[in-house]
Amino acid sequence: MNVPDREADRLAALRAYQILDTLPEACYDDITRIAAHICGTAIAVVSLVDENRQWFKSTFGIEATETPRDVAFCTYCIPQNELLIVPNALEDARFATNPLVTGDPHIRFYAGAPLTVPGGQNLGTLCVIDKQPRQLTETQAEILRALSRQVVQLMVAHRQVRTLEQLEAALRASEDRFRLFMNHSPALAFIKDEDGRYVYISEPCTKKFDLPMDRWIGKTDIELCGPEIGSKLRETNLHLLAGDKSGTNLQTVPTPDGRSEYWRDYKFTFRDVDGQKLIGGFAVDVTDEQRALAAVQLSEARYQKVAARLGETVGDLETANVKLKAISVTDGLTGVKNRRAFQERLNEEYDRATRYQRPLSLLMIDVDHFKSYNDTFGHPAGDVALQMVARTLEECIRTVDFVARYGGEEFAILLPDTDYADALTVAERCRSGIAAANWPHRSVTASIGASTITETMGDGFDLVREADQALYTSKAIGRNRVSHGSGTISVASMTRTARVSASH
């Protein structure tokens, strides 16, 4: 390693200790005072040398806080691992014309011990200075070395303290994020120790059961819920601790108004960093789902009674109903869903998105110049073209997305859990997929308008209206385009976006 490399390593180590320009500290001042007294000098300094200066962490006998590096005696000390002793600076060619020698503070004697940190770098010196020529005794030199090592220990401790402070700050930030995450989660969460006592409870739990945090921590289920319910919960916990598999359970919880709520919970065991075995759990309110299921089951029971009275088998009626339902919501030409099915799905997805604060986007797609295509090649050819458009759109979307024929040559695609950027990516995939398809007569393109749910929208039809406006923009600026809201996205920029979100 050459000298510049060593200097770069030294400066990196100096910055890592984060001590430059810190406030004076008594522990360093004590060392400079002792050094001056032991060595019998007027001045003692703890100096650190950076790129352009020597900065004084502690001084005794002078008021200065730093000097330029090019006049610093310490510059000659840090490249070596031994004391640098200058008995008379006026007789030393390196320092005879130095302004610190010819002028204030009129240095004559200098002795510096390098501050060598554990990595081997010399970050500065502990030096003693006098205005008279002199020499150190062996004892004084050894004590100066010992004091320099004490300065290094203080610096190492300073760095360790700063590191611990940074780790503690990172830990506090991590804990704060965890609490915020859990407190905003719709799930109730808890942690118990092996004795069944709560060591953590999420804020939604305290609100759900109207019990403050301090009423939970350290308590068991028997103390909180009474012996009947608490004993059952404890029995489940003991099975988990004994090695039974984790799993889900459906719990029925009575409410003050005499009704019941249904909660799906999941409990499991784990060990913390100290090796202590703990029980964790989550619970989610599934009351709406359970009541809907009960309603369906009741409806099916009534249906079976009616079917029996009519002398028909339940299987035949169910098959007929399924076929009838499928026909009523399917476009007969293209095989995708029809406008009626789209409107039902739009309401469902819009309600879900607003309820759970999830993104939702919509694409409105219109086949360009379709009337001309029909007039030129005939309606049967036009029907085939629409069928090809429908298949292409289905190939460009996920299984959770919903494509429908909205009317004539217009299609609509609902994109659950899809934000602005991803909606544009899917739209461009559909547009380019249609343009690249192997058309039998002539090329076919489509214009696309996209919209994404916002807080200002009142219902799903606002989503449709915005997508329609965007579609009109795409057609007005030349067709075979993708637009979102009031802004238009060029084909070139959309191609770049598609590469970024290809995992959609």
Strand runs, count: 17
CATH topology of the largest domain: Alpha-Beta Plaits
Global outline = elongated
Q: What is the distance, rounded to the nearest whole angstrom, between the alpha carbons of the first and last residues?
A: 50 Å
**Biggest beta sheet summary:** 6 strands, antiparallel
What average pLDDT do the residues reach?
86
CATH class of the largest domain: Alpha Beta
Number of domains: 4
Query: Which structural class do you get from the secondary structure elements?
Result: alpha+beta
- Share in β-strands: 15-25%
Helix content: 40-55%
Q: So, CATH architecture of the largest domain?
A: 2-Layer Sandwich
List low-confidence stretches. Answer: 487-504
Biggest β-sheet: strands ordered side by side in the sheet: 3-2-1-6-5-4
CATH superfamily name of the largest domain? Answer: Reverse transcriptase/Diguanylate cyclase domain
Number of helices: 17
What is the CA-based Rg, rounded?
A: 39 Å
Helix and strand topology:
Layout: H1 3-17, H2 26-39, E1 43-49, E2 53-60, E3 66-68, H3 74-77, E4 84-86, H4 99-102, E5 109-116, E6 122-130, H5 138-183, E7 188-192, E8 198-201, H6 203-208, H7 213-216, H8 221-225, H9 227-241, E9 247-254, E10 260-271, E11 277-285, H10 287-310, H11 314-328, H12 339-356, E12 360-367, H13 370-377, H14 379-395, E13 402-407, E14 410-416, H15 420-436, E15 446-452, H16 460-476, E16 482-484, E17 487-489, H17 491-500
Parallel strand pairs: 15-16
Antiparallel strand pairs: 1-2, 1-6, 2-3, 4-5, 5-6, 7-8, 7-11, 9-10, 10-11, 12-14, 12-15, 13-14, 16-17
